[in-house]
Write a structure and sequence with these properties.
homodimer; disordered C terminus; elongated; 6 helices; 107 residues; Arc Repressor Mutant, subunit A; DNA-binding; alpha+beta
Chain lengths: 107, 107
DNA sequence: CATAAAGTCAAGTGATCACTTCACTAAAGG
DNA sequence: CCTTTAGTGAAGTGATCACTTGACTTTATG
């Protein structure tokens, strides 16, 4: 389940975005991540499963601890969705510029 | 309610992303958008309210019809959230290169 | 071996979601 | 004025969500 809908749904939660933010600093233990939040370990674990299902992180077990790591590829995939719109908003700016130009020099 | 969470939540639905896609072609009537989906007009109207609350579109009433338009600024806001991670995923590529080099010449 | 540490799993709860139907308002057109 | 068109509002339903507690599994440590 690495659909766009799944990715955006995973990103639509403050806790989960905060986890991703923390993982920018490198891999982290589940319990370590959990200590940042006012929530049970189980609660955080649920969020991590959501992120994993969305393909945004991977969880590796070493000994009795789990280490979480970002999967940048999926982030990129989501980010790419906006590319089409970038073109659009540049267009908008152009039109605003055109309008300003037209106002300044209306002949 | 133009929070990142609200924006991503709004984007986490196929129907709503399809609406945004259609609006890239310019403004459109509610009923016009609705005709594309196998759903009641009320259903589509709900989705449009969600997009509006997220700040992703605006709805203007002219006569008895409503016209929907993209709000590129909000799209951009969401897009910008990924910028931090772009730096990270470039970094990852570097580390992979480093690892490859290390493997080749490990002494 | 006994205990602690790291975490998941299962089940339950209240909230929110997507979608529907039915009733309603507001603007045009005959 | 009467009807149609365009759409929203309210209420209800089944599904999913965020979070909890309590029991369980696995690995390390005294």
């Amino acid at each position: 389940m690495t659909s766009l809908s799944g990715i955006f749904a995973a990103l639509s939660d403050d806790t989960r975005r905060a986890v991703l933010h923390q993982l920018k600093g490198g891999e982290a233990k589940v319990s370590n991540l959990a200590s940042s939040f006012d929530m049970t370990l189980t609660g955080v674990s649920n969020h991590l499963q959501t992120l994993k299902n969305a393909g945004l992180i991977e969880i590796e077990k070493r000994g009795r601890t789990r280490y979480c790591r970002l999967k940048p590829h999926t982030l990129r995939l989501a980010s790419n969705w906006f590319d089409d719109y970038e073109a659009f908003w540049d267009h908008q700016l152009d039109r605003i510029e055109d309008a300003l130009t037209a106002d300044k020099d209306p002949r």
